[in-house]
Amino acid sequence: MGTPAVIRRGADIEYEDLEAAEGLCKGVLIGEDEGAPNFAIRRFELNPGSQVPKHTNEVEHGQYVLSGSYVVGIDDEEFEVSPGDSLFIPAGTVHWYRNEDDSTGSFICVVPTGDDEIHLVE
C-alpha cells in the first residue's frame, strides 16, 4: 500500500532555537520522521529585532509568509514580505532575513528531504 497518511496536530510540534541566529526557531511539521519520502515542511518564527546572517543552503526551498512583516535579502536585493507572500530560493543562493517589525514573523518552508547544509557567507 505504500507510505501511510499522517496527521500532525499543531500542539504536537516541538520548536527549537537555532544557533544560526538568536531569535529564530524552527519546528518540523512533516519530515522524514513522519514518513515523507520527498520533502519536509518546516515552520520558522523570527522574533522582533532578530536577523539571520547571509547564508546559502545546499537545497532549494519554497516559503510562504504566515504572519508579520520582515525583510528578506536575496543576492544583492532586499524585499519586504508580509502574510500571503511566497518565495522560491534556489540552492546555493545567498539570502538573509531581518525583522524590523514589532511583531514576530513566521513562515512555512518546504525543502527536499535529506541533509540541508547551511554555509554562512562573510
Protein described:
- This protein is mainly β and 122 residues long.
- The chain has one domain: Jelly Rolls.
- It has strands at 15-17, 24-30, 39-46, 51-57, 61-67, 70-74, 77-81, 86-89, 95-98, 105-112, 118-120.
- Strands 1-2-3-10-5-8 form a 6-stranded antiparallel β-sheet, with no helix packed on it. A 5-stranded antiparallel β-sheet has the order 7-6-9-4-11, with no helix packed on it.
- The protein is globular, with a radius of gyration of 15 Å.
- The model has no long low-confidence stretch (mean pLDDT 93).
Overall pLDDT level: 93
Radius of gyration: 15 Å
Name given to the CATH architecture: Sandwich
Supply the number of structural domains. 1
